[in-house]
Specification:
Oligomer: single chain
CATH class of the largest domain: Mainly Alpha
Number of strands: 3
Number of domains: 2
Number of helices: 9
CATH topology of the largest domain: Four Helix Bundle (Hemerythrin (Met), subunit A)
CATH superfamily of the largest domain: GntR ligand-binding domain-like
Strand order of the largest sheet: 1-3-2
Length: 239
């Protein structure tokens, strides 16, 4: 499958590599560039009116983040996540994020809690609008990252952010296909309140359950979606 990107605007000339990487990352996470798509350097360079050098560097950056794979003789591909991949990604999150939250909670300020509360209200509002589905993953990460922000663990945060990037395009699928919205809202509010109370053990336990349940329901939703797609395809068996 070749890459097709809507040509909306020319990339601004700040850091061309970062700008190209940001644009492609956003489109992959939103699902505008689907799994299996091949990212052709020439096509991207022509579309954004830049040379191939920043495009090549941007693709290397996205490869390092785990968003794409650079395959010999095929170039850059947006990989499909298997149920096993989903399980591994959320297992990493369930291990790392409670540890970062534990370090962050004692240093969270009233302003941090207020900011997280504001993001959460916006998130709840966006979840009720399916036409704004592309914002769901971004707001979910923004909420969590505020709560982790006082841990002063930049390497942990970089790993967590990369893991979230790899699975973010499927997070919307999980919320959309399951009854995950109501549970996610309730647990987010509970986690925020426990952080406000500085109840570190309870907040970390709930966060771990929250991540584990999201990963399991996402894996199930993905399996069901792909099973349905295969059964509806011309080569699949339709019941």
């Amino acid at each position: 499958m070749d890459l097709v990107i809507p040509s909306d605007s020319i990339i601004p000339r700040q850091s061309l590599t970062s700008a190209v990487a940001d644009r492609l990352r956003d489109q992959i996470i939103r699902g505008e560039i689907p799994e299996g798509a091949q990212l052709r350097q020439e096509a991207i360079a022509t579309l954004y009116q830049v040379s191939r050098v920043p495009v090549r560097e941007a693709l290397r950056q996205l490869d390092a983040e785990g968003l794409i794979s650079i395959v010999p003789n095929r170039g850059a591909i947006v990989p499909a996540l298997s149920p096993a991949d989903i399980e591994e990604l959320f297992a990493i999150r369930a291990l790392l994020e409670p540890e970062v939250l534990k370090l962050s909670i004692p240093h969270l300020t009233r302003a941090d809690i207020s900011e997280a509360d504001s993001v959460l209200r916006n998130y709840v509002s966006e979840l009720n609008r399916e036409d704004h589905v592309s914002a769901w993953g971004r707001l979910n990460w923004q909420f969590h990252s505020i709560l982790y922000s006082r841990a002063n663990q930049p390497r942990f945060m970089a790993i967590i952010r990369n893991v979230n990037n790899s699975g973010e395009r499927y997070t919307r699928l999980q919320l959309y296909l399951t009854h995950g919205i109501a549970r996610a809202n309730e647990e987010h509010h509970q986690i925020l309140e426990l952080c406000r109370q500085h109840d570190i053990p309870a907040a970390c336990r709930l966060l771990r359950r929250h991540i584990e349940h999201a990963g399991e329901s996402l894996k199930v939703a993905l399996e069901q979606k792909r099973s349905s797609t295969e059964s509806d395809s011309p080569n699949g068996s339709s019941s």
